[in-house]
Amino acid sequence: MAYKQHFIEWFSGKGVPSYWDVSTNSTVAMTDEVDGGIKLTKSTANGSWATLSFSNYKRPFSNTGCVMHQVFKASTTSGTSCNTGLSDSKGSQTNCMLVYHSDSIESGYYTLTTAGNAAVSHTATTTAIDTNWHHHKLEQKSASAEYSIEGVLSATRDSNLSQSKMMPHMEAYEPTTNTFSYQFRFVEIYNT
């Protein structure tokens, strides 16, 4: 559901709505469980991925003032990598503000990642990645990016911020044969 530049997605129903673009050589599907949401599952193929973003490259969210709330969980904490948040593209993430859930980036802690014109920076939180549902909040301001977990400010960045408008981006990827999944039950994004 979208109201001007306020977007809400509960990931319920039998299929992925048409305003989402599914890019994958793995699996992206609605789950058949209560409050399970949508599941992005990486296959065992080396370097496989599962990505969900807006179709037609719609980028309605400001790089100088927007908020994203999301609730997601992972199937494992080992051999896994998910980046989820806001990006200006479906793949290269030249300009973005993302949460990383990975055991290889920042030694297995939830991490705020920003990129401005391809200059990428990571700031780890003190919260170790796990397999539980968590509420994540990203806020892009004019001179900073903030990341909160369960309502607690956990990381801030003030350099290498996005230089262009963005859209939601959720991706499960790992350049190995590991298989894993990420489930998203809620996403809300709005300009401030």
Can you describe what's shown?
There is one protein chain. By secondary structure, this protein is mainly β. It has a single domain (2-191), classed as Jelly Rolls. Helices cover 0% and strands 54% of the residues. It has no helices and 16 strands. The strands form two sheets. Strands 1, 2, 4, 5, 7, 12, 13, 14 and 16 form a nine-stranded antiparallel sheet that branches. Strands 3-6-15-8-9-10-11 form a seven-stranded antiparallel sheet, with no helix packed on it. A hairpin with an 8-residue loop joins strand 8 (81-87) and strand 9 (96-102). The protein is globular, with a radius of gyration of 15 Å. It starts with a strand and ends with a strand.
Summed up, what is this model?
The chain has 192 residues and is mostly beta strands. The chain has strands at residues 2-3, 6-9, 20-24, 27-30, 38-42, 49-54, 66-74, 81-87, 96-102, 109-116, 119-128, 134-140, 145-149, 152-157, 167-173, 180-191.
State the helicity in percent bands.
under 10%
The fraction of residues in strands falls at over 45%
- Biggest sheet character: 9 strands, antiparallel
CATH topology group: Jelly Rolls
Q: Do you know the CATH architecture?
A: Sandwich
- State the order of secondary-structure elements, H for helix, E for strand: EEEEEEEEEEEEEEEE
Whole-number count of domains:
1
Total beta-strand segments = 16
- Give the terminus-to-terminus CA distance: 18 Å
Structural class: mainly beta
- Mean pLDDT level: 90
Name of the CATH class: Mainly Beta
Nearest-angstrom radius of gyration?
A: 15 Å
Total count of helical runs of at least 4 residues:
0
Low-confidence stretches: none
What is the overall silhouette? globular
